[in-house]
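pls design
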């Protein structure tokens, strides 16, 4: 039985690109004025303007996920220098707050996007991300880093990333997987370039100026994104306010949300601790620093391949096997005791986990109408944010309690594989069978 929320026909086509935020009576007026077109499947799905939007979205993911996915290098640096008097688990909370807050604001941001508040929110969060990065350069105490790098960077990134996927949903339908694959590549580029830049710059110019240089990079990338990014469809004000609780009447939607929560309890563990585990087995810290960049670089190819395959066989059919590989490799990671074996695991893990991250929102886009896509994605992200917040600190606590990473791998790998099982159930509920395109 197909229990998913089914899409309905939308009579919307004309771009809303006048730079205004709509509210109240203006919202209805804008929707009426821009009604027309050929219905739900009337999407550009390409062309210069649509691909320019994709480039702007890549700048967003470079500046948000790419930045946040670089946390592993900061974890290792803080443990050995600025925050050496803090436990690994306590330091990991800074990165976990970042990870969670990139998703948690999605509930509010998604609703504001549906109502037409996109450009003003986007500009404000861009300014906050740049400002907080410059402030990190001045941090000296643990609570300074929690406030600036954890909370401020996380919230700003969430305000930028949240509406990015919704904008893509306005421009792409049949080629949405490919578009999202390219968008996710921005994250891989950022997660590769920024850690390498930090590693090379810190010894030469010091930590404060390293963060300032990263801030200047963000000014360029976010500046381009603010110029380029535009929504296409008019704002909509569907019933329900901030929440669309009726979406949870669909078992498929509900279980998929829970699957993401469980996966995120473990999926960031390797990226957070891979360089720390490398130094623990005697690998030169100068090389261990690059493992995060290696993982993010390999995820670039995983994201691209996942995007192409998604349009052909369905996003869930791509996510399930690749995420399963990521879970298995999480089990294997603590038992890699040589540089070569650790690099091989890091590369394959980056490829596999990148495939999951690139398509994370795609199934949600298919579980309802386009006019409510921001709110649905927002609820989804708020749920998985709790898993992203708790996962790395739990892994850090397990590491401190056991004195090694073996049990950490068991915990994180099991979390990922349980989430994969729930994704399989979601696909069955949508299709009514175990095999099919979704």
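designed seq:
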């Amino acid at each position: 039985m197909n229990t998913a929320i089914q899409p309905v026909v939308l009579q919307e086509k004309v771009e809303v690109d006048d730079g205004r935020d709509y509210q109240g009576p203006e919202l209805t007026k804008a929707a009426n004025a821009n009604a027309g077109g050929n219905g739900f499947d009337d999407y550009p799905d390409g062309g210069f303007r649509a691909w320019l939007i994709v480039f702007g979205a890549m700048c967003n993911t470079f500046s948000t996920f790419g930045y946040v996915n670089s946390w592993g290098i900061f974890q290792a640096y803080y443990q050995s220098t600025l925050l050496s008097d803090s436990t690994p688990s306590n330091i990991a909370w800074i990165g976990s707050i970042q990870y969670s807050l990139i998703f948690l604001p999605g509930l509010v941001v998604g609703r504001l996007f549906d109502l037409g508040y996109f450009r003003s929110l986007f500009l404000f969060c861009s300014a906050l991300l740049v400002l907080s990065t410059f402030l990190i350069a001045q941090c000296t105490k643990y609570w300074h880093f929690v406030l600036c790098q954890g909370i401020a960077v996380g919230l700003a990134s969430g305000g930028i990333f949240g509406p990015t996927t919704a904008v893509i949903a306005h421009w792409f339908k049949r080629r949405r997987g490919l578009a999202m694959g390219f968008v996710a590549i921005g994250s891989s580029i950022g997660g590769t370039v920024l850690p390498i830049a930090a590693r090379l710059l810190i010894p030469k110019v010091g930590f404060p100026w390293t963060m300032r240089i990263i801030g200047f990079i963000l000014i360029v990338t976010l500046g381009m994104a603010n110029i380029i990014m535009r929504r296409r469809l008019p704002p909509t004000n569907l019933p329900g306010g901030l929440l669309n609780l009726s979406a949870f009447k669909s078992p498929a939607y509900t279980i998929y949300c829970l699957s993401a929560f469980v996966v995120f309890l473990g999926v960031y563990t390797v990226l957070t601790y891979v360089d720390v585990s490398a130094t623990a087995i005697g690998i030169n810290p100068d090389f261990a620093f690059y493992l995060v960049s290696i993982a993010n670089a390999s995820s670039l190819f995983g994201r691209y391949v996942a995007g192409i395959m998604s349009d052909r066989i369905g996003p869930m059919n791509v996510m399930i096997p690749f995420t399963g590989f990521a879970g298995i490799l999480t089990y294997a990671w603590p038992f890699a005791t040589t540089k070569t074996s650790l690099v091989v695991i890091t590369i394959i893990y980056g490829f596999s986990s990148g495939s999951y991250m690139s398509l994370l929102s795609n199934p949600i886009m298919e579980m309802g109408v386009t006019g409510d896509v921001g709110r649905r994605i927002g609820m989804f992200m708020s749920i998985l944010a709790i898993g992203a917040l708790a996962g790395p600190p739990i892994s850090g606590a397990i590491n401190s309690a056991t004195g090694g990473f073996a049990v950490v791998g068991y915990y994180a790998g099991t979390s990922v594989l349980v989430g994969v099982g729930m994704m399989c159930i979601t696909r069955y509920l949508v299709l009514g069978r175990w095999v099919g395109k979704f």
